[in-house]
Design a protein that fits this description.
- This is Bacterial type II secretion system domain protein F.
- It is found in: Cell inner membrane.
- Belongs to the GSP F family.
- The protein has eight helices and no strands.
- It has two domains: about 90 residues, Type II secretion system (T2SS), domain F (Receptor-associated Protein), CATH 1.20.81.30; about 90 residues.
- With about 200 residues, the chain is an all-alpha fold.
- The protein is rod-shaped and about 95 Å long.
- The two termini are about 15 Å apart.
Length: about 200
């Protein structure tokens, strides 16, 4: 569970947090003690800071929902559901439901990301292959036709002229296509790309 510049936690971070707390509640451990346990075992400083804010809020008499709100890293949906769970005395059930929900959300978003990026990468690579074929293979056929005393006409002739022009900039075009494919891949892995694919009206 990470916090960086007050950004909302990711799906898997929320799922892990809710899963750990549901086990704590299931064991009969009070929330404030459970948060202290998680804080002591926190693997990262950012996680410990978030848990510290929650712990301090609970110490000052805040509800668990309000304590989470103080961190500014939990989406409204989580806060609303936990608030309902507290009022209804069903916090464990709500935490389990949130764990499953955010795991499914992560799976769906990964599927969407793959469905978008993979075809774009394939299109870029196919264009690169087609351009190489036009620039390098078509001239071979043109040479054969010339040796036979004929020439390419119509569409084939137009493609040959395109091939001649393409050969002048082939290296640059292929580099641009490869860079575009690499850019798409890197963007999908970047923070901005992850944020785009993780847009959720409930957050």
């Amino acid at each position: 569970m990470k916090k960086k510049k007050q950004q909302m936690l990711g799906n898997l971070e929320i799922a892990a947090f809710c899963d750990q707390l549901s086990m704590i509640v299931s064991a009969g451990i009070p929330i404030y003690e459970g948060i202290s346990i998680l804080q002591e075992d926190a693997p990262e400083e950012e996680t410990a800071e978030i848990l510290s804010v929650i712990s301090n809020s609970l110490d000052h008499g805040s509800s668990f929902c309000d304590a989470l709100r103080e961190t500014n890293v939990f989406p409204k949906y989580v806060l609303d559901m936990i608030g309902i769970g507290e009022l209804a005395g069903k916090l464990e059930e709500v935490l389990n439901a949130l764990t499953g929900y955010y795991k499914r959300e992560e799976s769906i978003q990964n599927s969407i990301k793959n469905a978008v990026t993979y075809p774009l990468l394939m299109i870029a690579m196919m264009l690169a292959v087609i351009l190489v074929l036009i620039a390098k293979v078509l001239p071979v056929f043109h040479q054969i036709y010339m040796e036979l005393g004929s020439d390419l006409t119509g569409f084939a002739g137009a493609m040959m002229r395109f091939s001649d022009a393409l050969n002048q900039y082939l290296f640059v075009i292929v580099i641009v296509l490869i860079a575009a494919a690499a850019g798409i891949f890197l963007i999908s892995k970047s923070d901005a790309g992850q944020k785009f694919f993780k847009k959720d009206p409930l957050h």
